[in-house]
């Protein structure tokens, strides 16, 4: 397992799902993980899971859309070795069904949130000439998805933001990459499945979207983040790592 001993990481949206799995994996690899989330109960539960397993974690309540709060947190925590911009939200609907408010809401979290947190923590990385920033994009940031207009719009933006930051700071010792998951069986997805008249059928249909015939697991996305965070990935910057079970392979 890629060693992260002595490294300090911040994972946003770490109160559940993919963010929680990343926090747990980083801690198992030796990192001190700052668990950031809007949900205090979810964030503290992640910290409890990490510490129960012998890892080190601390909770920080954070709204990534609040630039003042993000800047204050950067001042309190100090330099990071690893930043994972995982916090994000979704929306179902076409351009005719989505409202301007829907698009603005997703933009504030999915794009402006990544911008805010990166801008606050990047200067300390630049000063030390090292750091890894990992943004959570989506297969929907590479290919279009029906009924996901606002979501895809923002995730395409995350991929572009990632590539631009990577080019801007490649010579400064800071690597910037993004991960593009397909469908992952998170608590959010499980809750959405329960809204369908036939949850089992919906589960089969969602799984069939991916060439491997199943949805991913949060732990599998965490494994990709672990690699990108590690020193073994020193040559990797500006990439959009597809973790989509082959969804995009035929596109």
Strand order of the largest sheet: 3-2-1-4-5-6-7
Structural class: alpha/beta
CATH class placement of the largest domain = Alpha Beta
The first-to-last residue Cα distance is 32 Å
General description of the model:
The chain has two domains: 8-181 and 219-243, NAD(P)-binding Rossmann-like Domain (Rossmann fold); 185-215, no CATH class. The longest helix is centred in the middle third of the chain and has 29 residues, at 100-128. Helices cover 46% and strands 16% of the residues. The radius of gyration is 17 Å and the shape is globular. It is of the alpha/beta class and 251 residues long.
What's the gist of this structure?
The protein has 251 residues and is an alpha/beta fold.
Identify the notable features of this structure and list them briefly.
alpha/beta, 2 domains, seven-stranded parallel β-sheet, 8 helices
Fold blueprint:
Blueprint lengths: L7 E5 L4 H12 L3 E6 L2 H13 L3 E6 L5 H11 L4 E4 L14 H29 L2 E6 L12 H21 L4 E8 L5 H7 L5 H10 L9 H12 L10 E4 L8
Parallel strand pairs: 1-2, 1-4, 2-3, 4-5, 5-6, 6-7
Helix pairs in contact: 1-2, 1-8, 3-4, 4-5
